[in-house]
């Protein structure tokens, strides 16, 4: 990953003028490079990292391991793309190891996520099994620490 992408990943709101100063390049060159990345699909969008634990009615998030049966034509792609289209699915990854697909699923309640798994995901042709893990607390998301101790906060000492 080049330096421009690293800077944008850390702060997507950084202005092209400031990026140009940081990288020692003309503003026009930086703006053109960003446009090239967007056109090539390297940059897919810009998002804000939200600490959902601090929201009163924060969403419930589950990590779901899915075992699939590979299709003769296309392997896991067709079923994975179908699963990815569900609005409850925030992220989907093809994995190696004990399961084939890793999903991050969101809902308003535990029951809403459980209903998604039992009524929409598990009955799909090609889904062999699932393992659902509910996220309880977020310590770090997208390279951002969700809690940083105050300068005066002392670390706990264990015996």
UniProtKB/TrEMBL annotation:
<dbReference type="InterPro" id="IPR019887">
    <property type="entry name" value="Tscrpt_reg_AsnC/Lrp_C"/>
</dbReference>
<dbReference type="InterPro" id="IPR036388">
    <property type="entry name" value="WH-like_DNA-bd_sf"/>
</dbReference>
<dbReference type="GO" id="GO:0043565">
    <property type="term" value="F:sequence-specific DNA binding"/>
</dbReference>
<dbReference type="InterPro" id="IPR011008">
    <property type="entry name" value="Dimeric_a/b-barrel"/>
</dbReference>
<dbReference type="InterPro" id="IPR019888">
    <property type="entry name" value="Tscrpt_reg_AsnC-like"/>
</dbReference>
<feature type="domain" description="Transcription regulator AsnC/Lrp ligand binding">
    <location>
        <begin position="64"/>
        <end position="138"/>
    </location>
</feature>
<dbReference type="Pfam" id="PF01037">
    <property type="entry name" value="AsnC_trans_reg"/>
</dbReference>
<dbReference type="InterPro" id="IPR036390">
    <property type="entry name" value="WH_DNA-bd_sf"/>
</dbReference>
<dbReference type="GO" id="GO:0043200">
    <property type="term" value="P:response to amino acid"/>
</dbReference>
<protein>
    <submittedName>
        <fullName>Lrp/AsnC family transcriptional regulator</fullName>
    </submittedName>
</protein>
<dbReference type="GO" id="GO:0005829">
    <property type="term" value="C:cytosol"/>
</dbReference>
